[in-house]
Specification:
The complex is a heterodimer of chains A (about 260) and B (about 160). Chain A has about 260 residues and is an alpha+beta fold. Chain A is built from eleven helices and twelve strands. Chain A has a five-stranded antiparallel beta sheet with strand order 4-5-8-6-7. Chain A has a four-stranded antiparallel beta sheet with strand order 9-10-11-12, with helices on both faces. In chain A, strands 1-3-2 form a three-stranded parallel beta sheet, with helices on one face. In chain A, helix 9 runs antiparallel to helix 10 and helix 10 runs antiparallel to helix 11. The relative contact order of chain A is 0.11. Chain B has about 160 residues and is α+β, with helices and mostly antiparallel strands. In chain B, helix 2 crosses helix 5. The N and C termini of chain B lie far apart (about 55 Å). Classes of the chains: A alpha+beta (about 260), B alpha+beta (about 160). Chains A and B meet through strand 1, helix 2, strand 3 and helix 5 of A and strand 4 and helix 4 of B.
Chain lengths: ~260, ~160
């Protein structure tokens, strides 16, 4: 299907054009052009913005700001984001990583959107043309969002506090069976004082693992002490079924992989 | 659908075309310019057969809109041979029987070229990673991996 692309130098102008029916925002193209190629007739025109700030990574004052057009490849090679690189590298192959953007990943339906799982664990803030929102709120309302995402910001985690795991059947790269991101604050003796866990593929979009987070408080990372947290992992999940794995399979293996991530 | 002017450099030659707005780069290359080396496989970003190099980076031409490439430097497999002499990667693919039906080969070679341009002596793991976005249904991948490693060795010997 033919598309009409409008390019604007500012996000403000692009945002105004985005309000027209049938219009989608073009980031890296890995979602919206794919949809058009597949015959999605709901897409009739595209808009994009070329504002330079959309493509910059800024790290200052203990916080990171990723422009919405920043690619997975740019994150993976940034020296101060090496801890986040495993999540960026989990997305696609090299060509996809040169195209797929931070902003687009927030809209990627499961089984895609591995970086968004990491950003949810990091309690990121999503900045749009119309304001900003916690990522959890943004993800919940993303289907009706009509405001261009301009950046994502988050506090840099303490060293060794962030963990990420993606499970796929095809090696070295494949679609997610599941992904897990964890941000754990621990005392010197290893006791968990704060836990924020996010799952991918356990719903149609990244979700918090609240029961697991609660069960981890006061634990140390030993098989015995995390057992209740693993037992709670399936609470509230509604895994997807696709050609890669059934919902039943994903639910069965989730506690296994969560345990491996926590004990790694 | 309105047509828009698109101008870029393809394998060192200036190209200018009027393209339907929203057309993919793959369409522009194959159906407008006549460079059929990038292949249209899945059109979903999964198979890598349409891989080209845009401004030094590997990208998928099936998911790239042509009009976003204005002013870009685009490289495809058809521009690799020089004066009838195959590029070392092309020669290595032939010698290692790394191509059977050949549909994935242009994408594989462009993915390998980006790797060797940046990492002249890659490890096997780096080759596997570099080709991880390209699917081959014929070879089982091993001859392709060996071809890329052979081309890397040939490059380093020539440079020595």
């Amino acid at each position: 299907m033919a598309l009409a692309l409008q390019t604007f130098s500012t996000v403000k102008d692009a945002n105004a054009a985005l309000q027209a029916a049938g219009t989608r925002y073009l980031g890296g193209g890995t979602l919206v052009v794919r949809a058009a190629n597949e015959g999605d007739v709901s897409v009739s025109s595209l808009v994009r913005a070329t504002e330079p700030s959309l493509s910059t990574i800024a790290i200052a004052g203990g916080r990171a700001r990723l422009g919405a057009s920043v690619t997975m490849a740019a994150i993976a090679r940034h020296p101060e984001l090496a801890w986040l690189a495993p999540a960026a590298r989990a997305v696609g192959g090299p060509a996809i990583r040169n195209m797929a953007s931070v902003g687009g990943n927030l809209f990627a339906p499961a089984p895609y959107g591995d970086l968004a799982v990491a950003l949810l664990a990091l309690d990121a803030t999503v900045v749009t043309q119309d304001g900003e929102a916690p990522i959890e709120t943004f993800l919940a309302g993303r289907d009706t969002s009509r405001s261009i995402v301009t950046s994502v910001t988050f506090a840099l985690p303490r060293p060794q506090s962030f963990r990420f795991l993606k499970v796929s059947r095809v090696k070295p790269k494949g679609i997610s069976v599941l992904s897990i991101a964890a941000l754990l604050q621990r005392t010197e003796d290893g006791t968990i004082t704060s836990a924020r866990i996010a799952f991918g593929c356990m719903a149609d979009r990244p979700m918090r693992a609240r029961a697991t987070e609660k069960a981890l408080l006061g634990c140390r990372l030993t098989p015995e002490e995390i057992a209740p947290a693993l037992a709670a992992a399936n609470q509230g999940i509604a895994p997807i079924t696709d050609p890669v794995a059934s919902a039943w399979y994903r639910a069965e293996v989730l506690p296994v992989h969560l345990g491996r991530l926590l004990l790694a | 659908m309105a047509k828009v002017p698109v101008r870029f450099t393809l394998n060192g030659s200036e190209k200018a075309e009027f393209i339907e707005s929203g057309a993919t780069l793959l369409h522009a290359l194959r159906d407008k310019i006549g460079d059929t080396s990038p292949k249209g496989g899945c059109h979903q970003g999964t198979c890598g057969a349409c891989s080209v190099i845009i401004d030094g980076e590997l990208r998928l031409s099936c998911l790239t809109l042509a009009e976003t490439c204005n002013g870009a430097d685009i490289r495809t497999t058809s521009g690799l041979a020089a004066g009838g002499v195959l590029h070392p990667l092309q020669r290595a693919f032939l010698d290692a029987f790394a191509t059977q039906c050949g549909f994935c080969t242009p994408g594989m070679i462009m993915a390998a070229k980006v790797l060797l341009d940046r990492t002249p002596n890659p490890s096997r793991e780096e080759v596997v990673e570099a080709l991880s976005g390209n699917i081959c249904r014929c070879t089982g991948y091993e001859p392709i991996i060996q071809a890329v490693l052979t081309a890397a060795r040939a490059n380093s010997q020539n440079a020595a």
